[in-house]
Amino acid sequence: MKKSNFIQLWAVVFVLLLSFACKVPEAALRQENKELPLAYNASGDSINSAQIPWRSFFEDPNLKALIDSALSRNQELNIFLQEIQIANNEIKARKGEYLPFVSIQGGAGVDKVGRYTRFGALEATTEIKDGKEFPEPFTDLMVGAFASWELDVWKKLRNSKKSAVFEYLATVEGRNFLITNLVSEIASSYYELMALDNQLEIIRQTIEIQKNAYETVKLQKEAAKATELAVKRFEAELAKNRSLIYAIQQEITETENRINFLTGRFPQPIRRSSASFSESSPKLVQAGIPSQLLINRPDIRQAELELAAAKLDVKVARANFYPSFRITAGMGFQAFNTRYLLTSPESMLYGLAGDLMAPLVNRNAIKAQYQTANSKQLQAVYEYEQRILNGYYEVSNQIAKISNLEQSANLKASQVQALTESIAISSSLFRSARADYMEVLLTQRDALESKMELIETKAQQMNAMVHLYQALGGGWN
Could you read off the pLDDT of 275-296 as tens digits, one per residue? Predict the structure, then answer.
C-alpha cells in the first residue's frame, strides 16, 4: 500500500471515530436550572446573617467553648479531613499521568543453550572479539534509564486532573457543610439542655406549692372541712410531679452525653448558664435574598463543583474514542561481563519509538464508560437543583417558624401570668372554703403545663434561630 493511501485510510477512520465520539446523548446536553425566586416572602433586604462568623453570632461563652472543642476533636469531622487529603492525593496522581514517566532499570541473568540448536551453533562459531570465543554459559548484565510519555493531544489527562481538582474543592465544601451542621447541632442541644434545666426548676417550684396545698388539705380534713378523697388527690398529684423530675433528669443526662459525643469527650457535666434562659430572646437573623444561597451554603457549592467535575469526566470519557499517542525511549549499557559494561559505544544501547493506537473494533467498554459518565453528569445536575430547592424551602420554613413561634410565645406568656395569679386566688378561696379542692388541683396542673410549654416554645425559638442561621449557610466561616 502506498504511503498516501495509508494516510487517507487513517484520515477516514479518524473522522469516523471523531464523529461517533462527539455524538453526545441528549441527557448530557441538559442544562441545569439555576433560577430562584426573587425574594423570601416579601423581603428584599440583601443583608445576610450567614456572613457573620459563628464566634460573633453566638454570645454565650460556654457555647463558644463547646463549639471550639467540637471543631478540634469531633471524630466525624476528623475522618472527613482525611477524605480531603485523599482527594488532594488524587490531584497529584492525575497530574503525574500527563508528565513523562522515567524509570531506572537494571538486570542480570545467565543463559545456556543446547550445542546442537540454531543458537548453540551460532554461538559456537561466533567470537566476541578476535581470539575470544563466545562465553558459555552466557552472562547478561544491563543497566539503563527508560522513559514513556503519552502526548495529551485531546486534553484527556489534563481534564482528568481538573476533574480531580473540582472533586477536591467539593470535599472542602463538604467539610464546611459538616462544620455548619456540627455548629447547629451543638447549639440546638445546648439550648435544649438549658430548657430542661428551667423545666426542672419549674417542677420543683410547683412541688413546693403543692406541698403547702397538701398540708392545708390535711389540716382541713382534721378539722372535718375536707375529705380523705381530697387528701389522696393532692398526694397523687405530688407523686406524679416528683416522678417528672427523674424523667427530666434522664433527658438532661442524655442531652449532656450527646454534646460530649459531638465534642469528642467522655461523659462529663456541661457548663451552662440556664438561669437567664427564660428571659433570653432569639437573635435577629437577616435572611437576605435567595441568590445568596449559591454563595453561602456549602452543600450547594459542593454540588456545583461536583457538577463541574462530572462535565470534565464526560470529556475524558469522550477522549477515549480518539487515537492515543505515546513516545517511548531508553538508554543504557548491556554486556556479558562487568569489564565491558560501561564501555562506550560498544556496550551502549538506546532506542526511540512512537506509537499511535485507536479503538476500532469492540468498543463496548468505552461506550459504556462514556454513557456512565453522561448519566453521572445528569445525576449531578439533578443533585444541584435539588439542593438549591431544599435550601430555599429550609430558609422559608424557618422564617415562618420564627414568626409563628414569636406569636405563640407571647400568648403563652399571657397564659402563664394569668394561671400563676389564679394559683394564689384558688388557694386563698380554698382555705376560706369558697372553692373546691379540684379547682385548686386543676389550676396548679394547668399552670405547670403552661410554664413547661412556654419554656419549650422558648427552646423552639432559639433552635429556629440556629436552624435559620444554618439554612442560610452560616457557621462554617
Answer: 888 888 888 888 888 888 888 9
